[in-house]
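User: Hi! Is it possible to get a structure for several chains at once, not just one? Here's what I have:
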Amino acid sequence: MYFGVDYHPEHWTYPYAGTKENPEARWERDVELMVRANVNAVRMGEFAWGLYEPEEGKYDFAWMRRAMDLMHKNGIKVVLGTPTAAPPLWLTRKHPEILPRDQNGDLLHPGTRHAYCLNSDLYWNFSQKIVTSTAKALGDHPSLIAWQIHNGIGGIHNEMSFNEETEKDWHGWLKQKYETIGNLNDCMGSRFWGQTVTDWSEVPMPMRSPESHNPALVLDWMRFSSDTIVAYIKMQTDVLHEITPNAPVTTNLRPLTRNFDHFDVADVIDFVSVDNNPTIESRTAEAACEIDMMRSLKKDDIKTPNGEEGFWVIEQKAGQVNWEDVNALVRPGVVRLFHYQLVSRGANGVFYFFWRQPRFGSEKFYGGVLSHHGRADNRVYEEVSRIGEEMQRLGPMLKGTKVVSECAILYSHDNDWTLQLPMQPTRLFNLRKHIQLFHSAFHDRNLPVEFARPIDDLSKYKLIVAPSLHQLSVGEADRLKLYVQNGGTLIGTFNTGMVDEHHIVPDTGMPGNLTDLFGLEVEEFDPLPQGQENHLNFKGSFHVSNLHPARLWCDVIKPNGCETLAVYAKDFYAGKPAITMNEYGLGKAIYVGTQSSQEFYYDLITWARGVCNLFPLLKVPDTVEVSMRSSEERNIYFLLNHQNSPVRLQFYKPTHDFLSGETITGKYDLPPHGVLVVDEKIR
Ligand code: GLA
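Assistant: Yes, the chains can be modeled jointly so their relative placement is included. Here is the combined structure:
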């Protein structure tokens, strides 16, 4: 288990710290405080290009080597960032052609990080050069355990720049995909509004235009931009693998929010690491959903420095952020609670961002483990030190354990990007919120769940939910059928199979290519205005706790062999099916033709649990979050109280708590924001 911090030694030299005579004196105190807090790893150097190479071709890596020496002397491992997220000013002054242009064609100027275009060959060459030089200069250091490529790649739109070089690459990408202009016109349906092209050079980039661009073209643009980013990361990975074959490579990702296919990126790195920013207002279930997304990005071929599976959180917030309207303090105990939420859901390394709040720059009021004064008599340092001490005790118990899930939620970036395009049937639909309704039901009903793509091998799951796969390729539809055919249970929903991978609507009925799987056809669909509702009347086996509404969207369904589980209560489709189930091969395909309230999804998942013979991890009060990491030897349960008040638990047999080392029996009050890590089942 790595317990780390994100350290910027370059912020802590004279005149900001240290003395004139000994400019780096503060580093020693920092390391001393890190050791006292049980920190065993640091990430450094992710923005240091301008300091490594102050003039073109003139390098200075000695200062970083000194920082690494100090870490090594004190038993702290180092993850080095490649510094390409912040090109030096001399580079952009000399070669302004590497700068990005926005959707209006306007140049984005240097003077901050991320001022480059990832389609610039020149930028690639300079990146390759600095990565090679850094790896050659520092890669042999005994403290080095891993590399983080770049920083926050794909987090801002300018990386999908609209300059001439990008246009050239875009046309090359299209040529490779479509081979002939005729094929491109056919697949994109470019005759709509008479936008056919006769030459590759005519294909536009989706720049600011009077009306919306062809959605098929915009979708390809997203894929092209993603491929560019993946190739750029791979270029750096290859350089690092060549020079330092024993140091695994990662990059800091986010929960599916950046402008690339996160699964594709995960394929070209050795292990996944992420930034995690739950704020004081985050709902537990939302934070848990994001963590499950991040854990799911790479399930095979994981190579971490200590051989453990799972993922790392390479930037975990230590205090308040600086990008909200009001950046509230994170309350005492909450940082620790977030930490356990990460570890309980599979994290094997957590690094706090920042080690110390910088005294200058744009992020000077971003929370840190230490505040500006750098003293140890600070609430956050105390809380983080306590976590460090607990991790030292818990680490050996967690070795070899991982989160196992028999349920999955399907997600594809292609689908997500498609649903972000304009001219949807309803602007009120939000894929992330739809996914959250399902994830919260799994989370609150204590069933572990992970994310998978429709094209993945789905055979290991007992229950799969596929929320609104609006864009579904024939290959993906076949995968879903194969899964159910072989005995799986699938829950599909409205807004599925509306377009194929070319963004063309099927002419065989909806949901495209799945009418046989669900045993029905969606004849029409009725998006409901805000505030309007229909209702669901349930029949047969489906037990409900409440009257459930039908909101946002109602599919008008013609059954064709399926069983009806619920019908609409009113409007011209009153009495017609809203929720159905179809036997298909050895499995079952359930279709939910509308969106309902959270309570409905609780009932749905509880019912599906029975259908699939799945059991909740533990039975605990609703406000307690439960997760489990397991190995062949043991199951370790984490119980987290996300409330501001104590929660009473009942232990019917003696239970070992790893954190306190005590045995618990009978009634136990889990304190506000309290955590239990136990190895026995409680009922
Ligand atoms: C990202 C970056 C950091 C910092 C934080 C602030 O995750 O990697 O450098 O800017 O955001 O939230």
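The pocket of alpha-D-galactopyranose is lined by residues 151-152, 252, 275, 315, 321, 363 (CB under 6 Å). Residues 215-243 form the longest helix (29 residues).

User: Great, thank you!
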